[in-house]
Amino acid sequence: MGKSKLIAFIVLSQLLIIAFLVFSIYKKSLPKIFLSLISKESVLSTKTKGLDYFYEPSPNSLDKANTWIPYQGISTINSDSLNERYDYKTEKDPGIFRIITLGDSWTYGLYVDTDNNWPETLEDLLNKEKTCSAVKKYEVINLGVWGYDLQYAAKRFELRGAKYQPDVVIWFVKSDDMLQINELILPLEKNVDAEMRKNGEFQKAVEEGDYYASWHKAYSQYIDKYPEESIVEKQKKILSDFDSVYTNPLIIASFLPVEPYYDDIVGSFVAGRPNTYDFRGLTNPTEYRELHFSGDPHPNENGHRIIAEDFLNYLVAKDFLPCK
Hints:
- The protein has 324 residues and is of the alpha/beta class.
- The chain folds into 2 domains: 1-30; 32-181 and 226-317, 3-Layer(aba) Sandwich (Rossmann fold), CATH 3.40.50.
- The protein has helices at residues 3-29, 32-35, 105-108, 118-129, 150-161, 182-198, 201-207, 213-225, 228-241, 260-272, 301-317; strands at residues 43-45, 55-57, 61-64, 74-77, 96-102, 137-142, 168-172, 250-253, 276-279.
- The chain has a 5-stranded parallel β-sheet with strand order 6-5-7-8-9. A two-stranded antiparallel ribbon has the order 1-2.
- α10 (260-272) links the parallel β8 (250-253) and β9.
- The longest helix has 27 residues, at 3-29.
- It starts with a helix and ends in a 7-residue tail after the last helix.
- The chain crosses the membrane at residues 6-26.
């Protein structure tokens, strides 16, 4: 082998080793709870100061559950990492009324096609039933992501949502979400998931229909490890800090009943922030067999439509819309 070829071979070998190491580090950094539900090609690990586990859907991708999940809706991810049928212009044209939705998998629309999640359905209902001369078009932009907590939803709005200049933000937060802090849970879940896969416990759980077993076990450890009072105070601060990126009308929505800590966190925030509304009138799909997947609490297509109709009725009743 000539000297030039030898040098080229050494350089190429070193580049391959570096590429392999980078890929290995990247792969290990992704939160496994979500890779266990969603194909890893659909996850983008976004470098964010202070958030070691923050992630988003990969732009311009088709997001679907792994093949062993029985619910196989396909999400169309646009160029801005949003579960949307379209790309939206950053600059809002005259006559456009924009709503941004925040939340977790229930807002994202896990296991249903993009067309059928409640933000898309709400957009269609608004444009069909509430058109008028003051509004050329309603746009509902979905920033929800599976597994998000308050902190991740707020950060996603800062990174992706603020530039769209929404007229209203709807933040759908279920009562159980109020104690979830991903930066504390995900390190625990990573260890739990690895152990459960090693000893066969994870596969057994899947066969029994529990697709979230590692999360459940890690969440239990998290609750035992961190006092509820400290979690509540952290969540209050996250909501309070949201004002630094958004000050327009905000609707925080949930089901009834809610836990006392939900009242504590949301109640104090709503009372101290202008143009902030506490909507607890959403239909809970888990209470109706026809509104959620069999064996899973996530809303199906029917459940998403009911939620969209609930929001439409609320927006009209509270005069959020510029047209009747």
